[in-house]
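DEPOSITED CHAIN:
***
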Amino acid sequence: MSDVALSVLDLAPVVDGSTPGQALQNSVDLARLTESLGYTRVWFAEHHNMPGIASSAPPVLIAHIAAATERIRVGSGGVMLPNHASLVVAEQFGMLEALHPGRIDLGLGRAPGTDGPTAAALRRTSDPFGVEDDFPQQLEELRGFLRGKLPEGHRFRSIHAVPNVGHEPPIWLLGSSGFSAQLAGELGLPFSFAHHFSAKNTVPAVDLYRASFKPSEVLQAPYVMLGVAIVAAEDDERAQYLNGPSGLQFLRLRQGRPGLLPTPEEAAARQYSPAEEDFLESRKASQIVGGPDTVRAGIESLLARTNADELMITTMVHDHGDRRRSYEIVADLMDLAPREPGVGATAG
């Protein structure tokens, strides 16, 4: 397994009894730790109106994390492109790449990363989900701004994103279904699939991506990264206990009551209805939770089914020390070693 790259998806969890400021400080600490362990990249997800997630503005956090680290790649997992003007994203990530050459990734998604009313506030439209249909055109426009090569006759051809030319970060497409998988393949871009919340679609999406892939100036062969939820601890019982809060938090989100990440004590003491138990049980298909042997077996099984090139691990536990320890255990299982600057510069 040592030839499979490992990376980090950090949602900057805000835990019960703490603050968003502390969550962001923890993100700095985690980035420094995982850099020292040999993880390839750390990405931050764009979510809105969620009290338990502090990473609402990935470009701001990316700038801070990149300045606090030396080698690890830093990026978005992802920027939800329909929430933003393509020109603004080009300016932000062109500037990030100029500040931190060879270390910035631009992961892009279509979903709003929030609920309907908040999506409407972000997108300033009465049909906030309809704008996702324009994603391919908006992506083409963004790439044109970054390269300074909008087509002849394009209405924005005279506009220049500054800085842009010479400061184009690698673009990844993110997805949880087949749409982005096929688009990434047709454009010859690296693809990151959200296995951590859409496990049943993982293999079909990865197969579709590879079947659709056309070599490009970016990639000559498909490159697949999977987002996967892992909680590793000293033994299975401890890991399951630490994993309880993320299940309760996700349950509350689905019930329309988003909140902070609860304590494991609260999660363990809660009485769940049969329907809630079924919901939590269904989440296990997308998670790898346990002691070292269980986690190793889970990773080996996932890689055997998907032949992924890279795993991007997200770990949502209440105590930051336990989160650090989980990433250390996985690094040890995968025989990671510190990487030199620039390694993994594009798709790994």
